[in-house]
TrEMBL record:
Residues 473-695 form the Glycosyl hydrolase family 67 C-terminal domain. Belongs to the glycosyl hydrolase 67 family. This is Alpha-glucuronidase. Alpha-glucuronidase involved in the hydrolysis of xylan, a major structural heterogeneous polysaccharide found in plant biomass representing the second most abundant polysaccharide in the biosphere, after cellulose. Releases 4-O-methylglucuronic acid from xylan. Pfam families: Glyco_hydro_67C, Glyco_hydro_67M, Glyco_hydro_67N. It comes from Aspergillus pseudoustus. It catalyses: an alpha-D-glucuronoside + H2O = D-glucuronate + an alcohol. InterPro entries: A-glucoronidase_C_sf, GH, Glyco_hydro_67_aGlcAse, Glyco_hydro_67_aGlcAse_N, Glyco_hydro_67_C, Glyco_hydro_67_cat, Hex-like_dom2.
Amino acid sequence: MRLHALTWPFLALTVAAEDGSKAWLRYAPVRCNRSCQKTLPSHITILNANKTSPIFTAAEELQDGLHGIAGKHVAITRGCNAPPSSILVATVSDYLVCNGTTVPDDVLSLDEDGFYLHTHGASATILGQNARGALYGAFEYLSLLAQGDFATLSNTSQTSNPHAPIRWVNQWDNMDGSIERGYAGPSIFFASGKIVDDLSRAREYARLLASVRINAIIVNNVNANATLLSAENMDGLARLADVMRSYGVAIGISLNFASPQTFGGLDTYDPLDESVIAWWENVTDELYARIPDLAGYLVKASSEGQPGPDAYNRTLAEGANLFARALQPHGGVLMFRAFVYDHHISEEHWKNDRANAAVDFFKPLDGKFEENVIVQIKYGPIDFQVREPVSPLFANLRKTNVAIELQVTQEYLGQQDHLVYLPPLWKTITDFDLRVDNASSPVRDIISGEHFSRPLGGWAAVVNVGTNTTWLGSHLALSNLYAYGRLAWDPTLDPETILDTWTRLTFSAHPRVLETVNTLSMTSWPAYENYTGNLGIQTLTDILYTHYGPNPASQDGNGWGQWMRADGDTIGMDRTVWNGTGFSGQYPAQVASVYEDLDTTPDDLLLWFHHVPYTYVLKSEKSVIQHFYDAHYAGAQAADAFVDQWDSLKPLVDKRRFEEIRRRFVYQAGHAVVWRDAVTSFYHNLSGIADQHDRVGHHPWRIEAEDMTLDGYVRYTVSPFETASRAFAVVTETNSTTGSASATVPFADGVYDLVVNYYDLYGGHSQWKVYLNEKLVGSWKGDMEDTLGHNPSIYIDGHSATRIRFRKVKVRTGDKVRIVGVPDGTEPAPLDYVAFLPRGIVD
Ligand code: GCW
């Protein structure tokens, strides 16, 4: 059936459910009438492509895109004689076979995966250095089309080459289908110890990755399970590789160092043992027999309890080279993680410092790795914190290939229930000039291999998509995946420009949508940093449990080394050479001297490098403690504003996505207050220093649950204390009896937002109702473990603390407020406080 030009956009709009699954590749209709359609190609011509080639995929995508976006049906043809008004898609070499040498020089010298896109009127030529590159060119064409950029589409000529050859993603998927630090449901690859039968989501994922020019994926957790190497699972991996190959995405796997012993039946896993070497060679041969283009391996060894070469007194290089040599005959790459440290160090010793570990371990091994080894280095010396200095290891490996490791999954950064647009954070790292040998040496040039003339290098990001239709659990979080790919291709791109394109493709080009998504996203990381941990103190989350909500005390007093050394008077890690752990000395001299000196260290990393009194005065002329108080308040205020900002888009965003995003912003606004209160109370309690603005510890609009008249509720001492207002909450007397908490409203007559702080635990779906003078104001359920993505908590703490807000409630002095809680399972309908907030107050 031919669709009439006037009816198709309507049809497409009503048919396509906006559930987020198509992400930025929606191919949503843009205005294009008949005469506009005439300016578009009428054929797609491909050269030399079988059905599994990315070239063929490119043709199908172009066909779908032209139809979905512009309502034009276009046929696919093959062969050298392209009809007029065609999009020709081919590799450069196949094109030359047909057309002699009629291409510009820069097309002949494209880098691997690079492409050439040339359009003239309704004709287009898309050539890839390889088939994958041609597909990237097709996606570029489609991106322009989907943005309605017809001017560029009919007249452009561009060659585009990647910044680095390695542009990978990592998934931390376990064989049982769970995902370590994944916040969007179970694995799309694994279930019950095997590769799933239905790989349609894997195919869709490959499509997203290819569209942002990611060329490989490690499919399983770095904390690897050797059973992936069974014959049945290797066959499963081959199926997976087949599916992803058509999008030019190669697969690779993580390996467990001890596999020869734990899985192979040998009595050793010594990397220098002949039988171990032969075992790995055999495994590698078997894998390549099934997957000839296997990208390679990723190995986490001698880290966080994972086995490694240290068990046999072998070096990390000897361990890495074992795999690298097995891969060499097949052209595979070994990504070897630099995340090696001792997690049992003692804070008693002033000079102990986990941040030193990577350079301590790897610098002496520079030059000892095989040529196909790439050392994969987390961006900062600790672990994906809200702000870290650059890992100094990037400056210390001159004769070793390196790649940067980022996290798209927001492990320490709100687990996709808080909006944090990450590229501005990443840029603080990749644009950082390490001044190696006193010369310009930005991190991006080191990881590309350019600076030290290394043949390999690039990017890896832990993504952890799951079966959730939105991929990451949050529609807005997908901008991070999109931007990751764009930056790995070209790290000089500006985060706002990337975001603008993403927003056009994901929502619309309406100026208000563009502006609002920009404001929300660009303020999100500063806001999150403000309310979770600033001045370089790290994300003050619970590092011993779920890495989600606040628990500042958990930083200190354990072997994990994410210390802040906070006591009653002072705070911060002294990482100077003259008096501290010596970490600053791991940087090249010009950078080291900046960090060594308190006066030249930037405020935002001050406590990373220095141990100072709370009264120390910053460059901003505020004391450290007052900066803490102000920043945490400012951060929560900013998060509160996100809700209204998003609400302004209601008429411009489809209902489902509007509501799903809104729910998260409402939640984030509340949880930001939980963060603010917890961290400021913690430091207030520890330092005894008052807030100049008298906010900390003073909440005039709150009625504490423990002060209310309780019937069936009892007082409960919360731990950590700062995760409850005034340290107490109330819980139902038993798990099967209803509780009621009531009080007389002492506030003046007026219109207030009625807020209830409560705890939503894993283990039950309690129900609450709030009444004013026995008239129901609202009711809700404790079901966030099902509706939100963050790791739930089984405790009454900073992870489970949350709040609900009923807007514009009319209240009179003396009204009776009553909250009724019905427990469920192990969740005793916990309540912290109720607040009546006048307009504009965030408390
Ligand atoms: O950030 C920490 C995480 C671990 C992770 C480890 C790593 C896969 O908390 O869950 O393990 O880093 O990067 O290896």
